[in-house]
Amino acid sequence: MWNEKLVSVLIEFEFVQSKCDTSLFIKNVNNVFVVLLVYVDDIVVTGNSLSEIEKVKQRLKTKFLIKDLGVLQYFLGIEVLSCADGICLSQRKYCTDLLTEYGMLGCKPVSVPIEQSHVVNNMLNSNSGPLQNVTGYQQLIRKLIYLSHTRPDIAYAVHVLSQYMHSPTSGHLKLAFNLLRYLKSAPGQGLLFTKSDSFEIKAFVDSDWAKCLTSRKSVTGYCVFLGNCLVSWKSKKQSTVSRSSAEAGYRSMCAAGCEIVWIKNLLSELQVDVTVPISLFCDNKAAISIAANPVFHDRTKHFEIDLFFLRDLISKGVLKCVGVKSENQVADLFTKGVLVKIHNMLCKELKLFDVFK
Predict the structure, then answer these.
(1) 10 Å Cβ neighbour count for 284?
(2) What percent of the chain has pLDDT over 90?
(3) Which residues of 114-148 are buried (b: 16+ CB within 10 A; e: fewer)?
(4) Residue 54 neighbours by CB under 8 Å, 6+ apart
(5) What is the pLDDT of residues 14-35, one digit of tens each?
(6) CB atoms < 10 A from the CB of 338, how many?
(7) What is the rounded distance in angstroms from the CA atom of residue 283 to the CA atom of residue 141?
(8) Dihedral pair phi/psi, residue 237, rounded to 5°
């Protein structure tokens, strides 16, 4: 009922509800552009006219009891910090509170969130038995999932841990506490957003074939940049088993394609012109060849829907697949554990920045 009331009031104020994100409201009248982002009863408002923003606030006051907190500094546990290069989104307080809660504030930090040699399975062996406090494990992982909103560097480790929410072992808990030790090394690290003249979208996509030893499902990983800034990323186990690394890579490209289309449509609603075709960087040559080849054959007939979807985007000029060397594949961070040197290099590519250092 609250949401219905708020939506009706905003529509009355000439706002249009976004079709891509129903929590976003846009007003574009006579070159005046105002955007509201709503989460329950917390609202962020921005635009190109301070007078119009003030007018929106005053009109909201006539309908609701509101409190104006001024310039955006804190929203849903995320700190918005100004720095010399732009703004940084950080969850430093949330992270330090988490470390304090689990007694890890004084621990010895580690350099990577998950070791390169880790094995994804149920970890039931002589040294790792079922965990007694399942609820405590679930609470910790939920908090780490929320922290990953500004920490793409922990996305893969959180993805691994969240697969065992209902049957964790002491080995999984050890991995979770290793992740807390990694967070201790830089609790204030967050995403840096800098000004740029370019609104070019580009995406990096990767997969790790048959990564899960239990189900033999592969892992999809991708990250999407707007200009030089990271705006979307994902690390997720694929829903079906792939018969080859090419198929796993192709399914990952389709997942990234869906996200790119959504971002493109959202930017269109925000009056941002997007240059097409959008580059999709992949290091799997076989997957790129399948995307470019219009002929169906035995290797591809069992994943026909994905073939139609991605090839349709390519034929319409929305996407173009670009080969990239494995050492320059930024999405590696979302599909596997990597060495310290590579991890630090990829974090730099993702524009992770610690404004507190």
Answers:
(1) 26
(2) 72
(3) beeeeebebbeeeebeebeeeeebeebbebbebbb
(4) none
(5) 999 999 999 999 999 988 999 9
(6) 19
(7) 31
(8) -75, 135
CB contact set of 312 (below 8 Å; sequence gap of 6+): none
d(CA 151, CA 189): 7
Cα distances (angstroms) measured from residue 2 to each of 39, 45, 48: 12, 19, 28
Task: Please report, for residues 58, 147, 166, 179, 291, the alpha-carbon distance to residue 187 in angstroms, rounded to integers and kept in the order given.
Answer: 38, 10, 28, 12, 41
Please state, in angstroms and as integers, the Cα–Cα distance from residue 251 to each residue in 176, 206, 239, 305, 313, following that order.
29, 10, 10, 10, 14
Domains and their CATH numbers in the chain: 2-70 (no CATH), 90-185 (no CATH), 196-324 (3.30.420.10)
d(CA 177, CA 35) in angstroms, rounded, equals: 40
End-to-end CA distance of the chain: 45
9: CB partners within 8 A, 6+ apart = 60, 63, 64
Biggest CA-to-CA distance, the chain:
70
Q: Where are the beta strands (DSSP E) in 48-107?
A: 74-75, 78-83, 86-90
For 205, other C-beta atoms within 10 Å of its C-beta total 34
Contact 283, 325 (CB under 8 A): yes
Tokens 């691994």 label which residue? 160
Query: Structure tokens of 177?
Result: 């506490």
Question: Which tens digits make up the pLDDT trace of 313-342?
Answer: 998 999 999 999 999 999 999 999 999 999
Contact 231, 306 (CB under 8 A): no
Strand partners, 94: none
Strand order in the sheet with 189-194: 74-75, 78-83, 86-90, 189-194, 352-354
What the block records as the tokens of 211 is 């990564």
User: Does pTM top 0.85 for this prediction?
Assistant: yes
pLDDT in tens, 35-78: 999 998 899 999 999 999 999 999 999 999 999 999 999 999 99
Q: Which residues contact 282 (CB under 8 A, 6 or more apart)?
A: 204, 205, 206, 249, 252, 253, 288, 321, 322, 323, 324
E strand or H helix at 39, and its extent?
A: strand 32-39
Q: Tokens standing for 9? A: 């009031």
